[in-house]
Amino acid sequence: MSFDVIDFLESLFKLTVADYLRQVFGVPEWIIDVVQIFILATFLLLNVLILIWLERKLISRFQDRIGPNRVGGRYGLLQSVADALKMLTKEFITPSGADRIAYNLAPFIIVVSALLMWAVIPFAPGVVGTDLNVGLFYILAVSSISVVALLLAGWGSNNKYALLGAFRSVAQLVSYEVPMVLALLIPIMLAGSMSLQRIVYAQEVWYILVVPLSAIIFLISALAELGRTPFDLLEAESEIVAGYHIEYSGMKWGMFMMSEFINAFFMSALFTTIYLGGWRGPGAVEYPLLGLVYFSIKTFLILFVLIWIRGTFPRVRIDQLLNFNWKFLVPITLVLIMAVALIVKLLPDDVSSWVLAAVLFMANLAIGLGALEIFRRSAHRQRQAVEAARNPGTAPVAGTSPEAHSAPASAH
Amino acid sequence: MTVQQVVFIIISAFTLLSAVIVVTDRNLFRSAIALMASFLGVAGLYILLDAGFLAVAQIIVYIGAISILIIFAIMMTRRMMQTVESPFNPRPISGAIAAVGVCALLIFIAVSTWPDVEAANVSDIVLRGSVSQMGLFLVSPDAYVIPFEVASVLLLAALIGAVAIARPEKDS
Q1: Nearby residues of A344 by Cβ (< 8 Å), 6 or more positions away
Q2: CB pair distance less than 8 Å for B56 and A138
Q3: Could B30 and A137 be called an inter-chain contact, meaning their C-beta atoms sit closer than 8 Å?
Q4: Average pLDDT rounded to a whole number, residues B3-29
Q5: Domain end: B87, B109, B142, which one?
Q6: pLDDT in tens, B80-129
Q7: Which of B64, B71, B80 sits opposite A144 (nearest CB)?
Q8: Which pLDDT band, with edges at 50, 70 and 90, does B153 fall under?
Q9: Complex ipTM, two decimals?
Q10: Fewer Cβ atoms within 10 Å of its own Cβ: the N or the C terminal residue of chain A?
Q11: What global pTM score does this model have?
Q12: Residue B25 region, left (φ>0) first, then alpha (ψ -120 to 50), else beta?
């Protein structure tokens, strides 16, 4: 075969450029692999600039201001480039007494683990780095490795506050891995496999419509895993200052920020893959390029939701955070797993996926509303107990608080 | 010297070097980090043996949970920033006897089973990387359901015991 422009364009649309190159030019396999890896990693690292700009613009719009609008035209498009240049020219100040290996290894490990997770995400039908049959599990393993990087950073800084910040971060990350894993078990059960490509193929009905409660729990746990608001007290300026990366400057600090944005983008991609049907959409199987387009649209939509949440909610305290995790998220996830397993087993095998989806959706709704009702009642009881303790003379009337009684009396 | 052998040598060297650092380093935190590195090496060996699920489970459980627990335990009981331990055992003679005994046991096991186990047979017994097969093994009555359930009860007892021990005293 000789080089033909129409064939090349067709291979672009079908995303089979690698096969085309192999057939026409006889490019050896390993060069194609290296180029593919290079393209993916470079795209992710450069995408961080776009993500930073996007976040700053959106947050500023949520806060009713304009945001960056000086560098690079009316929309401040080159603001991230300016920031990156500033960061690159800053001096590396190593604290005295810092353990050199741990201090320098931490930013390296954290960026590499953020990039490694992308190896199993399916971008389009047939386009996936490596379709591991334990793909979802592999993602959890790599996020455990990034936890190690936090400890290295905290201890290698030879700084008490960095160490404390690192331990708090690790406590939050390890705690929220539990509901994340449990919530991820439900799509695995429904799809019958841990491989992400199979999960996308199994989603005739998007899983967010089938098990919305699991999607919500995964979103909350992902927010906590990423260390974003409302769970970002680890790096908020008014809290323990910068936490574990307090002693890093210049590009090393840039590595921590980069890993945070790559992780945020990755969690959005993971959410779309598991719950929004990944690259699924009309015409995606015949023209895989359309699959890539759908995937990008959905991922950026979820990223917008993450930034939206950041601009809306206040910060949660660490004890409220851990309470919320262990006393609310984990029990509700366990009940949800049991309910989904029961329903999947009780319904006959040949039921249509829409019927299964409807039944599971109802069950999810019931469990979610039931759990909210239970916790609302227990919170009400606790509030009444606190009121009774504060005003010992007033006997609490069922359904009303002492304030409501005394307010009309003092109105005239 | 096939590629697989080279990779095996590299991973084994990494694992053994980390294990030596765990035992001999004076700084307790660095020993814990080296322990994590040796767990990573063992996960690499699992991958070489075509047990992908086991390798990933090793990383999640050992590196992501147990090592962090060890580090937290070290932090709570010692002052981490100034911890300097002596790498030498205060009882050298019983240590030497124990080391020689364990070494003899391992050599005996390796030598007596080596000619019988061929690499090709292992994949006949367990389907290659099949997680559903492992799941079936764990819950089917003629496989490993009883050890699985006993392990679950043990973990539950440990969890309840930890909560009971760490519970604050009830005031009034």
Answers
A1: A189, A190, A356, A360
A2: yes
A3: no
A4: 91
A5: B87
A6: 556 566 667 788 888 899 999 999 999 998 888 776 655 555 544 555 55
A7: B64
A8: very high
A9: 0.81
A10: C
A11: 0.85
A12: beta
